[in-house]
Amino acid sequence: MLRISELKLPLDHPEAALREAILARLGIASAELLGFTVFKRSYDARKKSAIVLIYAIDAEVHDEAAVLARLARDQHIGPSPDTGYKFVPAARPAPGTPRPVVVGMGPCGMFVALILAQMGLNPLVLERGKIVRERTVDTFGFWRKRKLNTESNVQFGEGGAGTFSDGKLYSQIKDPKHYGRKVLTEFVKAGAPEEILYVSKPHIGTFRLVKMVEQIRAEITRLGGEIRFETRVDDIYVGNEAGVRQVQGVRLSNGEEIATRHLVMAIGHSARDTFELLYERGVYIEAKPFSIGFRVEHPQSLIDVCRFGPNAGNKLLGAADYKIVHHASNGRSVYSFCMCPGGTVVAASSEEGRVVTNGMSQYSRNERNANSAIVVGITPEDYPGHPLAGIAFQRELESRAYVLGGSNYDAPGQLMGDFVKGVPSTEFGSVVPSFRPAVHLTDLAPSLPQYAIQALREAFVAFDKQIKGYYKHDAVLTGVETRTSSPIRIKRNDADLQSLNTRGLFPAGEGAGYAGGIMSAAVDGIRVAEAVALAMAA
Ligand code: FAD
């Protein structure tokens, strides 16, 4: 099989043109091309009236060696790399070794458990939230009736934080071992559309994610894993073994104790009580940077026209996304984060008396608004003094948002133009906010520190140069966005992925500070599963 990259064709090319282009590029006759598959398809929309599709193709040809030799100088043609997943060669653990325990059934924990189960290591997964169907009822109940279940919500439950999301499945992580391909392949096996394997920015949307999570749970169980829901880890036992701190087990919310020497903590960025527990048990934790800001809603049509011009609405392109950055005069970076084309803004609280926003969409991405977090980067210098100070900082901002919103889980909101001018909003314009239960118009300035407000005001005006029409008076801002990434890092050794000071503890995924997003959390899960398998064999 050989790979052709950078094969460019016009957006509306007929299907047959692709085969023709492959033949022309390889300089072979039709009979010599035995077959081909699209490995990746992206687009270049810099020239809006002439958008170009860019393909990477895997082609099977009659005499591959001859073609490769003839085109040896073409840097876009070469043998297709092997992107298949290979399990680490780990020996069977000694008889009597307790099974590995995985805390959290988000994308990270799910992939730790799936890989361990595929290796025959029978993981036990402990998840504080409910199975995904019941969790959906609780989450929608909160959005409709303002009734928050602090153990079953957007953050907690089967599937983790990404379940009610846009389901974006791309990431900018380096992936030399093609773990991302393994994740996508497992998702397709679990019911995701095949196109996620080849489109450049795959996404699956909320409802499909729910079904896939159920399928993966069934697969883990079929392979000998066990998953317990509504089971929170409330304590961990760490012993001193010849001067080394070693994990020995966990205590569950029902009082049960479970022995293990291999404990994966894939707990996400919102398990603040569990972060506190780990800190109290002496696990090494440090503060890390994250970002704060607002969700912004524009009409999706505005973004589509700006990005795709006359090609707005083209089915292959779908609803347009955007990525924008502004370096503010006070030294802060302001950037778009977790942009959801054709989606909705969601209430993502997991604690009483606090409001936090996020975004989600369905596969079709056909809601009328585009939403994105617009956030300001902050560092531990903004919340100094304690490794967990970032959590207190997030809580403070989320509590302020709760009060500004009317103390009933409505989110505080403001029109973009009013925010920039510093006047409270009283009436919505053409953009109808999608957040449920409701958006309470007010002045958002007291919701964030002054440096963030100043940077955001400057950025909204500046973004108009990047996306014409972005600085729109009646675009709606909703606050506050605080859970952009984990405020802590549970540091681990690079070599064996175990905690810096606690053997047998594998900090993993977003909560531990080693991932940001569904794909990178799942990829980290694979890496950690391999580390666990190797440690169990040792
Ligand atoms: P999580 O998904 O947070 O999973 C952690 C799990 O651990 C949770 O289920 C939790 O209940 C459980 N847990 C915590 N503490 C305990 C305990 N003590 N005992 C037992 N269980 C425990 N990312 C994208 O890439 N694309 C998107 O489109 C996207 N959209 C998003 C939309 C929303 C609304 C949200 C909230 C997030 C979105 N994200 C998105 C981010 C993405 O969801 C996260 O990056 C990802 O889920 C992190 O995976 P994780 O497995 O590390 O942690």
TrEMBL record:
Cited InterPro entries: FAD-binding_protein (IPR028348), FAD-depend_C (IPR049516), FAD/NAD-bd_sf (IPR036188)
Domain of life, per lineage: Bacteria
Coiled-coil boundaries: none
FAD-dependent protein C-terminal domain: residues covered: 289-484
Protein name per UniProt: NAD(P)/FAD-dependent oxidoreductase
UniProt source species: Massilia hydrophila
